[in-house]
Amino acid sequence: MTNVQLREELFREINPLLDNNTAIRKVLVFLRTISSESQSANDSPKIRLDDLEIPEKLRRKRGCIHLTEEDMKDERIQYIVNR
Question: Cα separation of 32 and 67, whole Å?
């Protein structure tokens, strides 16, 4: 799912809860928990592209390449694609 699709899904799920104060409080507590966990995870050292071991097969490619689902499972490729 794209980032936009994820946001749309989040708002679709939250919308029915807007009339229920108890449910909204629970959602806020949950979101704050995720937010604090995310911030502590962001405090970890950043990965530099130069530090990644890029497979020779990919290093030789220039411009657009076709990535299979299997390729996308590789953490190094995910980093390059999502940066």
Answer: 35
Helix runs in 1-83, H state only: 3-14, 21-42, 56-59, 69-72, 75-82
Half-sphere CA count of 68, side-chain side, radius 13 A: 2
CB atoms within 10 A of CB 76: 16
* pLDDT per residue of the chain (83 residues) written in tens, 0 to 9: 788 899 899 888 888 888 888 888 888 888 888 887 776 666 666 666 666 676 666 666 555 566 777 888 888 888 877 77
Cα 4 to chain center, whole Å?
Answer: 12
